């Protein structure tokens, strides 16, 4: 995944697309920050694709919130800039699961963990986060898991 992002950055440099280039540099900086943190803690292996997907998902959520705040403040040009960054970041995320696929994944995770009550929600969410990083909205998934276990 990192190589795809680096190749996209090179293409943006060649084409002179400064908006895209700026966003891609932010992505690579966030990945580098995570690598440095991982190196100092325990492993020198670098950042996995799953971790990169989690970083990208977090970046998308941050920009969605910023765009919403900019719209509320009447700063439409800044909201549009945030949406452009979201579009660039989402190019590198795996395909999002549909509602039906998400329900099926939640059902499988509940069965595999043997979850019986809301107290077991952490186990289920752990399985989902490991398998579907970047592919599902964990806020919605958490609500569905809670409903299924409640």
How would you portray this structure in words?
- By secondary structure, the chain is mostly helical.
- The chain folds into 2 domains: 2-90, Uncharacterised protein YqeY/AIM41, N-terminal domain (Hypothetical Protein Yqey, Chain: A, domain1, Orthogonal Bundle); 99-149, Arc Repressor Mutant, subunit A.
- It contains 7 helices and no strands.
- Helix 2 crosses helix 3 (49-72).
- The longest helix has 24 residues, at 18-41.
Number of beta-strand segments: 0
Low-confidence stretches: none
For the biggest sheet, the summary is: none
Query: Per the principal axes of the C-alpha atoms, what is the gross shape?
Result: globular
Question: Which structural class fits the helix and strand makeup?
Answer: mainly alpha
- Main CATH class of the largest domain: Mainly Alpha
The proportion of strand residues reads: under 5%
N/C terminus separation: 38 Å
What name does CATH use for the topology of the largest domain? Hypothetical Protein Yqey, Chain: A, domain1
H and E string = HHHHHHH
